[in-house]
């Protein structure tokens, strides 16, 4: 009797387990998509941006840590500028010296102008006196020569002024170049994003183009999926899409921002071998910027999920409605204005 009872219990438990597994499997299955929709597995990604040095130098400070959220134009690092500031002082002294030479050239011009006027006056008097034979012809010729010399001296003084003014421009340009290098030593974030790698530390000497930080640009958050050729031909740039993340109960509205013009073998992140063996088209589904900004503290790259795209209807067809499981949108989202953001 006991053996029979044990067998019955085992059978009941076995049936319950089978039913539980079947029910759970049915519960987790996503309903099949209508013909006007296509989906693909992917993960949340963002464009990576490097913060690099423009000139060689020693790192003084780094103000951002890995994981920090930084805003566009926020200062994230500082390169030492002691040597450049010394060069700037020398360049500013050269500017002052060149400007004093311009002032001297202006004074020389005024002097030669006065000498020219005097020479012209003496020549005018000599012209009358030589007519009356009160002075010799040689004296008159001397006065003519003095006027010519005065005019030549004035032209030379004016040329000297132009040369000195160009020298001022040159040393000012040198000063501006050094100041620009000093400004470039203050490294600012080119985008609003999150720091994912800190690649240098204070005291390190970096060459021109040396990387200090690597960030993800939160102005461009997207998911890449791979779609067979048949539905890919019906995906338009700007087409409405929705993203369902594994860790989020809500659906994120999105839009198609890129469709590859060429097919390719899908990469390893596509989960099934049968899909990886096929030639597929890469499609980028972008989350609108306004929505990223509203939830910027929660944005994480690498989160896996599924992107769903609404295909362009065939002639005579209507736009396919979204299924029920994609209707619960992320709070504050504006599905009707996805393509405008």
From TrEMBL:
The keyword Membrane applies. One of its GO terms (cellular component) is plasma membrane. Keywords: Coiled coil, Membrane, Transmembrane, Transmembrane helix. Gene3D superfamilies: 2.40.30.170, 2.40.50.100, Helix hairpin bin. It holds the Pfam family HH_MFP_RND. Residues 102-161 form the Multidrug resistance protein MdtA-like alpha-helical hairpin domain. It comes from the Bacteria. InterPro entries: MdtA-like_HH. The keyword Transmembrane helix applies. The chain crosses the membrane at residues 7-25. Residues 81-129 form a coiled coil. PANTHER family: 36 KDA ANTIGEN-RELATED, MEMBRANE PROTEIN. This is HlyD family efflux transporter periplasmic adaptor subunit. It comes from Shewanella algicola.
